[in-house]
Amino acid sequence: DARVTQTPRDKVTEMGQEVTMRCQPILGHNTVFWYRQTMMQGLELLAYFRNRAPLDDSGMPKDRFSAEMPDATLATLKIQPSEPRDSAVYFCASGLVLAGLSTDTQYFGPGTRLTVL
Amino acid sequence: GENVEQHPSTLSVQEGDSAVIKCTYSDSASNYFPWYKQELGKGPQLIIDIRSNVGEKKDQRIAVTLNKTAKHFSLHITETQPEDSAVYFCAAPPSGGSYIPTFGRGTSLIVHP
């Protein structure tokens, strides 16, 4: 049963510290999404990769957030420096986009619950 | 870009009743409409989806209907059970080659035993 995995599941850190979240997409998938979920804002898209190339990061605060895919099996989301307002659950999702289809199912990971004190 | 509105934001029903959640979208070219269920402490998981070439799709107690003319689609859950309690999200993709769906704000469904 293929699944998206995320580490860590929970992270508590102090303001100003660097935070790195990791995601392993489902093998064979060619899209990766990073979302942030809060009660107030719902699911916010932070970044979108297709075939490891970043195609959309317009929802991501550029001054402190960065997202990368060093290889097809790993996506990372980094916050430096972290702030209390970054406290949220961060989800990674992967999918498979084929030519001719506008979109396909997203498979979400279990999330990383980040608390910045 | 796509605008998706989801109603209601909360829905409380008695076990055995039916529940209906509705989403409207703005881009008439959208052609794929998934519904996700998010249980407490977990990520959203796909429960049913529909493509624009059909008007209805059923899977046991859940069904999705699509009205392309009116640009809305609905999730129907019959014979609700306490384990159906969760947050449900609809999504619709924008057109123009972007593969990034727009999610609704979510509906918190509570099924009382």
Description:
- The complex is a heterodimer of chains A (117) and B (113).
- Helices cover 0% and strands 53% of the residues of chain A.
- Chain A has 117 residues and is mainly beta.
- In chain A, strands 2, 4, 5, 6, 9, 10 and 11 form a 7-stranded mixed beta sheet that branches. In chain A, strands 1-3-8-7 form a 4-stranded antiparallel beta sheet, with no helix packed on it.
- Helix content of chain B is 0%, strand content 54%.
- Chain B has strands at 4-7, 10-14, 19-25, 32-38, 45-51, 56-59, 62-67, 72-77, 86-92, 102-103, 107-112.
- In chain B, the strands form 2 sheets. In chain B, strands 2, 4, 5, 9, 10 and 11 form a 6-stranded mixed beta sheet that branches. In chain B, strands 1-3-8-7-6 form a 5-stranded antiparallel beta sheet, with no helix packed on it.
- Chain B is globular and about 40 Å long.
- Chains A and B meet through strand 5, strand 9 and strand 10 of A and strand 4 and strand 5 of B.
Query: What is the β-strand count of chain A?
Result: 11
How many helices of chain B in DSSP terms? 0
Question: Which regions of chain A have little confidence, pLDDT < 50, spanning 5+ residues?
Answer: none
Largest sheet of chain B: 6 strands, mixed
- N- and C-termini, Cα separation of chain B: 41 Å
- Supply Rg of chain A: 14 Å
Q: What is the tally of helical segments of chain A?
A: 0
Contiguous low-pLDDT stretches of chain B (5 residues minimum) are none
Mean pLDDT metric of chain A: 91
